[in-house]
Amino acid sequence: KVGDDGSRGAFIVLEGLDRSGKTSQCSKLLSYLEGLGHPTELWRFPDRSTSIGQMISAYLSNQSQLDDHTIHLLYSANRWEKSSLMETKLKSGTTLIVDRYSYSGVAFSSAKGLDFEWCKAPEIGLLAPDLVLYLDITPEKAAERGGYGGERYEKLEFQKKVAESYQALRDPSWKIIDGCQSMEEVQKLLQEIVLDHVIACKKGRALSHLW
Ligand code: FDM
């Protein structure tokens, strides 16, 4: 079985606006990699299964109110509480496909007006992904797709600000994928890039930390 040879898994993050197609693409990537025999797990943040995650979930569904700084730190704590398990999985050869990570943390909170550097600070020292895939879609296109639920951030005006924050966060290592293509076209592009990274990590590329 692949992964039993001491090689590590790849840490792959998908980012993008709400309705950019991240979640569907993540599950397709999972089946693709599993089909090739690479041990793979699908993760997402916020991870609503923990007690911190439940506080976040209550906030998102407007069942509770929290100060912007407080919710920001909870999102970060939710990543920290998962970080050692994440590292163990990667080191034991499991590839992690992760739907949102620290980039969502900074993009959404700074879109509310919080200081950009302050937003980045609690993420310092978390594991850095091997690859960030950004599904690029305009806020208007995303809204046209419909299906915004009733959650707190699912409004066009706010998504426009989030798009600007993502723009400020982008670095040259990100792979930007045009999210307006068909699901199949997007998936084909993602598969190629992801497989390259899975192979590079198996060959022993070192894990690093944010930022
Ligand atoms: N979100 C997500 C944040 O504001 N900060 C974060 O750190 C993370 C991981 O939570 F609107 C926002 C982004 C999104 C909401 O995410 C819930 P999902 O992917 O819709 O569950």
Automatic annotation (TrEMBL):
Membrane in keyword set: no
Enzyme class per UniProt: transferase
Pathway noted in the entry: Pyrimidine metabolism; dTTP biosynthesis
Domain Thymidylate kinase-like: from-to ranges: 14-188
Keywords from the named record: ATP-binding, Kinase, Nucleotide biosynthesis, Nucleotide-binding, Transferase
EC number: 2.7.4.9
Homology family: Belongs to the thymidylate kinase family.
The protein, known as: dTMP kinase
Taxonomic lineage of the native organism: Eukaryota, Viridiplantae, Streptophyta, Embryophyta, Tracheophyta
Full-length numbering of the shown residues: 51 to 261 of 261
